[in-house]
Amino acid sequence: MNRSAFLPDLDKPRCHCAIFGIIGHDAAAQMAYYGLHAQQHRGQEGSGIVSGEIVPSTGRHRFHSHKGFGLVNEVYRKHGVLTDLLRGDMAIGHNRYSTAGSSANKSNIQPFTVLYRDGNLAVAHNGNLTNFRSIRQRLQNEGTIFQTTSDTEVILHLVARSQEADEVGRIKDALRQIQGAFSLVIMTDKKLIAARDPHGFRPLALGRKGDAFLAASETVAFDILDAIYLRDVQPGEMVIMDRDGTEQSAMIHETPSEKRHCVFEYIYFSRPDSQIFGHSVDKVRRKLGKTLASSCPVKPQDPDEKQIVINVPDSSNTATIGFVQKTEKEGGNAKLEIGLIRSHYIGRTFIQPGQDVRENKVKTKFNTVKGVLKDRVVVIVDDSIVRGTTSKQLVQLVRQAEPKEVHFRVSSPPIKYPCHYGMDFPTRDELIANRCEGDIGKIGKELGVDSLGYLSIEDLLSSVPHENGEQYCTACFSGEYPVEIDLNHKKDENEA
To answer: Which position among 17, 262, 436, 473 bears the catalytic label?
Structure first.
């Protein structure tokens, strides 16, 4: 199957992954299915669930696994997978978008499992390990055999080789050796462990449903299950959960690190109905839109002309509402309209890759409401611009509706640098802001708009929460990377 045949948001940073874990529920795999379904937006290449049971007849612990390419409702479609195969009262699951490891290699679909001296062990990972190549090379030199090209597999080997006295200690020892961005759910024969890296790049939340503990990348996974959101796993924390409903907490490192939450979770990745890093995504995105309206107001040629403000569905919906609210509050003549219609039924396309279908890809996904746009001053609000190809084609599409003017506003700063912490950005040469040397005028000219405005990094940071001392990673905008990147080891030839 050609995984590139999917049509996600055409020119956006790709979501890293979604993870889910549950312990103490008789239908754990079914709960995991719904938790992953609610987080489908974080990864569409493949999905996997590993369940754990105590076999009634023998009292032995056994893991069961099912994974495959495709969306959640495709992977687990076969009758009996969730009820008969994935038996047990504990489970972890993963939705995949590859950021390290070949997307065409089925063995790279998580969760990964191993049987070692302490029994069964499974892990699902959201993020990217920045030092995994040096760890992998060291382990290979010492005789370790790897089954995948994913950075996550090194965690299993580090746990298995640890000389700590007990299993939780061995897991902690392994996590002390890895660097970068990681939110993890780890399942042993008896425990579910949720852990985050010391900087807290990626989100990870804890929930409860009756006597069962849950962990997930986003709180929407709890909503679909009528579970209660308890709190976030803290940066650098391991939360150890048992079948009997008890919970313990331990810190991976003795010395805490400065929090560096991924600010793109608020800008684009997370669902607006989620609580991320303890705050409402919807509320933050509205604030981003309001700040954008204040810092980059649209000035039509005729000051009295009404501005028709449209969003690029669906990720910029909330920011667009904030933009219009603030524009009106400051005396601007703006009206929110639905000017772009998005098709939600694209599925797969079977057009051959060699054909020139770039324009058709955009038209397959979007169409204009011409009566809304014709002869009007149109303001397009989007959350981000990466390569600029889709934005340019969207502007051309809007121009075909014959508006008077077309203005473009972006609720994030220009993206100039790749991400090494779990987002799949293009190389620097492919980023339109880098190609245009950060010149907003040049970018606007390439897009074909009458004016272009971005949030500055300062305005972005002033719009996101800081109540609990939060600090944010802005590396994709500023080039300032909080954790050193291991670039000295050659990529595996099969690695994406």
So the answer is: 17
